[in-house]
Amino acid sequence: MFSPDLLSACRTALVDCLALRPDERVAIITDEPCRIIGGAIFHVAREIAKETFLVEITPRRTHGEEPPREVAELMTTMDVVLCPTSKSMTHTSAKRNAQARGVRIATLPGVTEDMMVRCMNSDYNRIAERTNKLGDLLEKTKTVRVTSPLGTDLVMPIEGRKAIRSHGLFRERGQGGNLPTGEAFVAPLEEQSHGLVVIDGSMAGIGILVEPLRIMIRNGYAREITGGADAKRLIDLLAIHGPLSRNLAEFGIGTNERAKITGVILEDEKVLGTVHVAFGDNVTMGGSVKVESHLDGLITSPTVWFDDRMIMKDGALLV
User: Is 263 exposed, middle or buried (0-12, 13-18, 19+ CB in 10 A)?
Assistant: First the structure.
């Protein structure tokens, strides 16, 4: 039923990344679009864990929308949880609450079999080294500036914010993040970022863009969004959960050399040589804006400064 390569990738996720043990309880939360991946993870997990649960929920409307209350409660009682779902559960209270109870969690929003097989065979020790180095630099930085050939010129103050190092090794109590993964990211200070961001790679909730999205940021919020039909789609997505969905929530840098742009933001934002910004909830990464929406957008060929130090030029990482 499941290909050997997919089962091998699932075993890597469970054993190498999450360190699942025979005495532990694991839950897989999935939905219809990601049912095959959820089933494959369950198939492998039940050979390892003491107890294994497979739960399918109705797909959420947007990335960051909460799962049903019953599922959120189940998550807090597990040792390990994996969430291969079509809409991201990364920035939800359900995930945060489970981690606070010591649960190890991997979220796999929009994951496909091709992505799972290809990216879970990355060298995660090498990804961890690169990701940790960028995280260390972010925490020493007061201001990030990003430019791009299409016109991006965005300034984001981050002084005092803790960088998140999503390197794929979630082996200790309460650790969690995306799989497949590879990014270092941070929450810019609320209401302080300004400038123009041109998203030209892909956008969560939309996929690969027909034309670039031009988003004007003032006082930390997306004030003007242009770019044809995709701009209208983004405006409609942001309207579902209200004005806080326009908060500039995240700046991140991809660190996975095997990731490629596919239109699924889970993988796209991990592509080495790209950066991304996100709008909406930033509580998961240490910010103060809580809203049931978190939408990432990818910028290709960026040039990036950490204060006065250029760390990336036209998509080439310099550190």
Answer: middle
The CATH number for 4-119, chosen from 3.30.1330.30, 3.30.1330.60, 3.90.1170.40, 3.40.1830.10, is 3.40.1830.10
Phi, psi of 126 (to 5 degrees): -70, -40
**Spatial separation of the C-alpha atoms in residues 22 and 305, rounded to whole Å:** 46
Rounded CA gap, 200 and 285, in Å? 24
| pLDDT tens series, the chain, 319 aa | 899 999 999 999 999 999 999 999 999 999 999 999 999 999 999 999 999 999 999 999 999 999 999 999 999 999 999 999 999 999 999 999 999 999 999 999 999 999 999 888 888 888 989 999 999 999 999 999 999 999 999 999 999 999 999 988 899 999 999 998 899 999 999 999 999 999 999 999 999 999 999 999 999 999 999 999 999 999 999 999 999 999 999 999 999 999 999 999 989 999 999 999 999 999 989 999 999 999 999 999 999 999 999 999 999 999 9
Strands 104-107 vs 176-178: parallel, antiparallel or unpaired: parallel
Q: Measured between alpha carbons, how far apart are the two ends of the chain, in Å?
A: 44
Instruction: Tell me the two tokens of residue 188.
Output: 């810019």
How far apart (Å, rounded) are the C-alpha atoms in residues 40 and 264? 20
The full set of domain ranges for the chain reads 4-119, 124-317
Using alpha carbons, select from 17, 298, 253 the residue that is nearest to residue 134: 253
Tokens for 176? 């969690």
The rounded distance, in Å, linking the Cα atoms of 279 and 277 is 7
Pairing of strands 104-107, 80-83: parallel
Closest CA to 51 of 60, 64, 39, 42: 42
Bridge partners of 85? Answer: none
